Amino acid sequence: MIPKRYEFVLFAFLMAAFMAGFMSFIVTIINIGFVDGLVLFWLEAYWKAFLVAFPTIMVVVPQVRKIVHKLVAK
Fold first, then answer.
1. pLDDT along the chain (74 residues), means of 10
2. Which of 35, 57, 63, 69 is the most buried (most CB within 10 A)?
3. Containing domain of residue 29, as a range?
């Protein structure tokens, strides 16, 4: 098991993995369609998207939580 102190890092990693995968796949299909070699094009887009998504989530999620906390009624 992973220690509790790494919960946010694991959350950010998994969120980045799923979102980068899903979004890069959709955008790749939109841009090039269903072509031969689609998976290779998608995997190239995926790792690039993940490199952006992971640190972005690490920075943005705490800020979004603060904004949501202020907007939600107590």
1. 95 97 98 96 97 97 96 91
2. 57
3. 4-71
Give the rounded distance of the alpha carbon of 61 from its chain centre: 11
Q: What is the DSSP string of 29-40?
A: HHHH-S-TTHHH
User: 0.90 cut: is pTM over it?
Assistant: no
Contacts of 9 (CB under 8 A, 6+ apart): 58
pLDDT of residue 74: 82
Distances (CA, A) of 63 to 54, 56, 59, 60, 71: 15, 11, 7, 5, 13
d(CA 62, CA 68): 10
